[in-house]
Amino acid sequence: MTNTTLYFTPAAAKSQNKFCSALSQMIAQVHDRPIVFLCIGSDRATGDCLGPIIGEQLSSVLSAGNRRNGSQKQKAAVYGSLRHTVHAGNLSDTLSSIYNRYSDPFIIAIDASLGVSEHIGFVTLGTGSLRPGIGVSRSLPAAGDIHITGIVNHSGSNNHLTLQTTKLLTVAELAGFITPGDPERITCPSFPPEPAEASPHRYTLNRRPPERHLQFG
Predict the structure, then answer these.
(1) Residue closest to 135 by CA, chosen among 7, 46, 47
(2) For the segment 159-187, what is each residue's pLDDT rounded down to a tens digit?
(3) CATH for the 5-185 domain, from 3.40.50.970, 3.40.250.10, 3.40.50.1450, 3.40.50.720
(4) Looking at residue 110, what DSSP letter applies?
């Protein structure tokens, strides 16, 4: 999978269709691996709650898809929600839990990001991992085989305050764009419905994916 980052403007016509198509193509290349959506963020700051909101929505969408199809089997696992946030304090433990439970998981990391003013409201989809916390000078583990970010605000000299004062509408619109109502648009139809048997090897920090040095909130 070639390293690339795509930018999507939610306001543009058919932009969500293009986003879902690009994501499905990435997932289709690894359809034999368990899919894990890792939704990172905290509900303590408006700008940082994008991940938990998406995690909450994804869980509902996937559960609704199962009920509609009469299936009890999960097409993908979701870590991180408003009820159970994945944040700076538990990210390492969450990654350990994922790697110990699933054999060779394909992790889709989702987080809020800060960028240039012209890109506020954009969504990025890229290959490789992201580094949560870089935008607020936190050193956290790299996460994800691919990543999705929503640019919630501009990056500046006081990013902590920026996240606190980010408009909720911006976050809500990004979450609605990233999480479509149909689970078939965000999961590969040939993905095995049940997680693979857990790896016999314990996850260690040395197994983290390569780092991407980007500005993330």
Answers:
(1) 47
(2) 889 999 999 999 999 999 998 755 565 55
(3) 3.40.50.1450
(4) E
